[in-house]
Amino acid sequence: KAGVFLxxxxxSGYLLHTKVYQFPDMVxxxxxxxxxxxxxxxxIGGTIALSWLFYLYLERPFISRRPVFST
Length: 71
Prior knowledge:
The chain is an all-alpha fold. It has helices spanning 2-15, 17-29, 37-63.
């Protein structure tokens, strides 16, 4: 399941990889140093979360005919 999830959001991550990576990096850098393992794990987690949100709200509506938001 984790592989399928990462495969699903991988194109979103590819489209936005520099900006998606930079935002968590800027936030986490204020809390810890880059040589801390927590820094790396948090940046990766933040990148995955932002890629998922991009996929869910911007990419998915164009892929499926179902509306994402119900009225």
